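Lecture notes, unit on protein representations.

Consider one protein chain, 374 amino acids long.
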Amino acid sequence: MYGWRVGSRQPGPGRERDVTGTGAHGTGSEALGREPGNEAPRGHEPGNEAAAHEPAGGGTGTAGSGGAPADSGSHGGALLVVGDVVTDVIARHRGPLASGTDTAAAIRTVPGGAGANVACWAAHWGCADVRLLGRVGADTAAWHERELAAGGVRPCLVVDPHAPTGTVICLVDTGAAAERTFLTDSGASLRLEPGDWSDAVLDGVARLHLSGYLLFSEQGRALVAVALESARARGVPVSLDPASAGFLADLGVGRFLALVEGVDVLLPSRDEACLLTGLPDGADAAAKLSRHVPLVVAKQGAHGALVARSGTVSARVSAVPATPKDTTGAGDAFTGAFLATLLSGAVPEAAAREGCRAGALAVERVGGRPPRLG
């Protein structure tokens, strides 16, 4: 499957569509489009190379602490991420935006998308086989494919014949917290649909991770239902990151909880957990959510993470100190490292510690992807 070429026949209902995939034999999609801007070599941010910290053993150093519990899922196989691949335009400014006139900013264009970021961080954290199913436009398909492959991910990108690749403008205030605001044009990313799925994508997969952005379009919700059914049939555990408090509010809490029925691990942010439960306290919210989903790992930003099961918070994991430069993708970094460590056989509490380490590394970089090694 992961050697598909442009114009090959996809699994599913038998339509023709463009699919790219590096597989073991190269990309085969260079004619699809040029990367946006040739000024930066393959997404490197100048000056960030020194921030590349090798994760300890790919996050497996804690795997001996009791082995994998029943709710951590199988280990030793591949991680399949299904989700969004977008182009991030990051504008770093200091202080409030000046309405009606210019605001000075440092602007970069980098590869992003919650699903793609999670996949890259999982590979960076030692998961040997990470696969990504996503949908992009022909405008930047080749660039995104190369970036994913260079990050250790096996991309399977459906090339949408009508929509461009999604674009997110990230406004980052370079103050102490480096908080960000997103302007999102989802483009092709929310057009991923059941026809893009095949049961064969689960061959060799030990865990399936779904980006919550899939729930914010009709065809994405249909794909989630199909993927969950396929995973259940094969006994593959499923995790999901709610992705966006703003979009969740539009979707509705009841609808979200119904859509994630059958998910084994939920990885919300504090804001998302509070929104989904109506509770103001992050720990109370995580505990309540764990009555709906067997394992909840709630990301608390600078306050670390909470692990909750069966209505009770079972662990509080401290954050790793960091000096924030850009918080874009910090939650994705947590999720990727958490899943990689879980797949190594570690318990969720140990995996959450690795997630906090990855999050700390992420906030000290510009963009949502990990540093290149080597």
